Amino acid sequence: MKEFQKQVEAARKLNRALHSFDINLAIAATDKEYAIAGNFFYVLHTPEISDNINIRFNEASNPSLKLEVGLGFRSYYERVFITTPSGQTGTMTIFHGLVDPEQFAIIDNRTQAGWLVLENVLKQLRGVIGAERSANVGAGTTTVSLTAVELIEVNDLRVGWILQAKPTNSGIIYLGISSSVSSTLCMRELAAGESWSLSNFTGAVWGIGSAAGQLIHEGRW
């Protein structure tokens, strides 16, 4: 019990030695002096993960150290010189003071939360979730003649598509990525019954026939 009480008292003293202040990132500054002392300096919050400052401990002639959110130093200092690069906005929160390393630790679960966000993004890119994805699933049949026609439209949300020439076609369908597609300027040609599928291409696909009245089935997801 006595040992626990000592730890509580140490924690109380620690709390009185910790401080925070804000930096307006919209105001560019070079080696602005802050009359603060301690052995702990940490960037607690920034509006954007790429926001940063450069600091020098004790003297403006000392080496400059770049700090971003989640980064900090344990080093004794009597004053700090901070440079705020231009082109940033919002407020950065700095946590600093004199701490006992055995009585102080930062609990940061943001990395785990970040992985969950990335996992969600990957699922959307794979078409696993997202109302936007389901809205881009479809199929149809288009008549292709001697004039180029757009078969697959530009769509940044699309995962993939498939095209199949109708088995009863009498001619060939030439496929390309613009309305300039022709029998000599094409990416692929489909005879009757042949198909072509492509993933991770979000651009347009055009087609033109070697004869009028050719049919092609398209599916997109």
In words, what does this structure look like?
This protein is an alpha+beta fold. The protein folds into 2 domains: 7-106, Jelly Rolls; 137-220, Jelly Rolls (Sandwich). Helices cover 16% and strands 38% of the residues. It is built from 3 helices and 16 strands. The chain has helices at residues 2-17, 110-125, 131-134, and strands at residues 18-24, 29-34, 40-45, 52-57, 65-68, 72-73, 80-84, 91-97, 138-144, 149-152, 160-165, 173-176, 188-190, 195-199, 205-209, 214-220. A 4-stranded antiparallel beta sheet has the order 1-8-3-6. The longest helix has 16 residues, at 2-17. It is rod-shaped and about 85 Å long.
Q: Which descriptors apply to this entry?
A:
221 residues, alpha+beta, Jelly Rolls, 4-stranded antiparallel β-sheet
What's the gist of this structure?
Helix content is 16%, strand content 38%.
Shape, principal axes of CA atoms: rod-shaped
Q: Work out the strand percent.
A: 35-45%
Would you state the CATH class of the largest domain? Mainly Beta
Largest sheet: 4 strands, antiparallel
Write down the secondary-structure element order. Answer: HEEEEEEEEHHEEEEEEEE
Strand order of the largest sheet: 1-8-3-6
Count of DSSP-assigned helices: 3
CATH topology (level 3) name of the largest domain = Jelly Rolls
Helix content: 10-25%
| N- to C-terminal distance | 65 Å
Number of strands: 16
